[in-house]
Amino acid sequence: xxxxxxxGFGKATAELLAAQGMRxxxxxxxxxxxxxDGYELLQLDVDSDDSVNLCLKxxxxxxGRIDVLVNNAGQACLGAIEETSIAEAKSLxxxxxFGAVRMVDAVLPVMREQRSGxxxxxxxxxxxxxxxxxxxxxxxxxxxxxxxxxxxxxVKGFGIRVSAVYxxxxxxxxxEAVRLPAAPLEEYKRMRENAYSVRTKDLEGGDxxxxxxxxxxxxxxSKSPRASYVVxxxxxxxxxxxxxxxxxxxxxxxxxxxxxx
Length: 261
Prior knowledge:
Layout: H1 8-19, E1 25-28, E2 34-36, E3 39-43, H2 49-63, E4 68-71, H3 86-96, H4 98-114, E5 117-122, H5 135-155, E6 160-167, H6 189-204, H7 210-221, E7 228-231, H8 236-243, H9 246-256
Parallel strand pairs: 1-3, 4-5, 5-6, 6-7
Antiparallel strand pairs: 2-3
Helix pairs in contact: 1-7, 2-4, 3-5
């Protein structure tokens, strides 16, 4: 199962796994059920317990087992912390974090009974390097990364493997559906616009999503996959962060995203 398979990482992953001869069920919020590029696309809203359970039931009826779950479904938001409401932050976490938790809770009984399985959670480099005006996105992906680390230890004895993938800059079109604050503050307007412009350029110059799909394929084929994989442009920023003093790195981030200008 690959959630969020109608575009970006999910679509690239579903296509690649299917091309390798695997039976793949992709999911999307907006679909009536169809086959596309070698895989079946099913309707699923990861924010809904009922939707998750219904989709899992359909997959089990069609396939009889679940060997791999790729948690890719997610959303992005753009706004300073002060201008983002608690409700908006919760909505983001509902999809990016609790949506993955729902999927894991649904498949674990099946995988435990099989005594085998693989869970791949798509986090983000933003979970490690914070981005101005995207605090809650960064926090949701950081939560997913830590969740993966703990889950990996808890289910290892059942023969279930867990890995997290941390993509850097990729051409996924994620900003096309970015959510803005319902009550934006004028004081953060320039910061928001600058950050959006810079982030757009970063992503337009990013890597092909297939690179993440190829990483997931290697994880699927590995008997002992690593806990985490950092993929794509932006990886060098981790090295820079580890070398520079905290204040110097913060200044570098501020200049890059034109914060305070």
